[in-house]
Amino acid sequence: MGSRIEQRGKRGTWWYLGFFNGRKFRESLKTTVKNVAEREQRIRDAKYQDPAFMPTRKLNPTVGEFWQEYEAWAIEHRSKATVEVQRHLWNSIITFTKAQRMRDFRPQDFERMKRRRQAMGKAGWSETTCNSALKDFDAIWRRGVNMGWITGESPAAHVERFTVTRREITFHTRQDIEQLLEAAGDDQQLRWAILLMGFAGLRRAEMAFLRWENLVFDAKASFIRIRECDGFRPKTRQERTIPMHRRIFSEMHPFRQESGPVFVSGRKNEGKHRYPYDCKRALTSAIKRAGLPDADPFQRLRRSFGSMLVQEGVSIFKIARWMGHSVKIAEAHYAALLQHDGDIDRI
Which parts of the chain have pLDDT scores under 50? Predict the structure, then answer.
């Protein structure tokens, strides 16, 4: 039992976090001054320690009051990455709908949001993202109902989901990647990025956050580990190991280090960027010099790894494991490239 206060950011608002009589309390103290926050903490401690204190629940709380309750629960029961995704989603929905209270949400608001986000093209949400947003909102609402914070059915429950149209998978050929490496010239870090995505199937974040201790250089069995580190968590929340291609070994082995990040950015304001190393501009320029399609540069390189392996007859199960996919997703991506399997004629 007890309480503490914490500040959001260097000069942000102070928040109160307490646990008394089997109940959790979490609320903004609406001040950036520590002395005032400590005084407010003592006031709340006295109030919440009283066994007779019964917190009141509003049947129609404000969206801020509801999110405060939900976030406190989510931090205890959901992963940090999930909380971040849901916080971003919640803020987007509030910004779009202008809802003040939980009963302000209407099904037509979500229909408008779907159309608007999809019409924004690359700057908006895809069909899959729109469907995921509706699903997450429903889950947040149900949790509120289960915890007694709100009542009734989610206003997004019966909003029609998109039928997702699967796009044609695009990729580079082995010759394309060689041209791209040539176009990268002496930019060592860009060359490493191309190799790690094109010959190991790493995602953009997996490449950008890669550390030397996760590269094992051994003449007999070299491999790459994808695992959680400071500031990074694998998309599937699972670690995986990928055999190291000889091209990656030959180019990176002479520069190997015991530990530390593989990619070092020269930017002074690294903390404001999503990735510690961002080669999008350099990669796009190299792609244009090589005369290759520049749409979706990172995923196209990653899919090139899977497509080349499929065309060489490598098991789809191996490819799925190396790329961090489910077999179902791998088959959906590369079904058109799968070779005829003679085993079907054994019966």
Answer: 269-272
